[in-house]
Amino acid sequence: MESESINFNALLPVKFKYAGYVVACSAFLAAALINVTGSMDNFEKHTFLFTAIRCLILAGLFLVAVSRDKVEDELVGLIRLKAFELSFRWGVLYVIVDSILPMAGIGMSGFSLVLSMLILYLLVFNSKKKQMQ
User: What does the DSSP assignment read for 60-102?
Assistant: First the structure.
């Protein structure tokens, strides 16, 4: 019987975490720059651009979430698992509340839901990791 420890081989190497930060921050800055400069004269022309930017933000945050830390031991793996669990619970709870109360005006898009789950995961993971140190 195999050991019941967490399989850390499923995580990407640390360099993907840095690449994820670069991609997400660059995409976020591009979206902010487009909004600040007011170059939204023709919204239909920018629809593809905003879709691409949103996908890059999600892809960058996803890379950060599934990449190893410099020190990846069993405790960090447990913290990672608890953070994923909490963000998954948030997603399920949101879907249940939104389906029971569709007129409550909460209405989040799929992008917003996944983005909030990734941000919640990263916030919980990093705060628990700081508490550990």
Answer: HHHHHHTBPPSS--HHHHHHHHHHHHHHHHHHHHHHHHHHH-G
Give residue 1's pLDDT. Answer: 44
Q: Which residue has the higher pLDDT, 42 or 84?
A: 84
Cα 130 vs. chain centroid, distance in angstroms?
A: 19
**pLDDT surpassing 70 at residue 19:** yes
| Reported pTM | 0.81
Q: What is the rounded average pLDDT of the residues 108-122?
A: 89
Residue 107 lies in a domain: yes
One domain, residues 78 and 38: no
Nearest to 65 by CA among 129, 125, 1, 132: 125
Query: Are 118 and 65 contacting, i.e. CB atoms less than 8 angstroms apart?
Result: yes
Q: Which domain holds residue 64?
A: 11-68
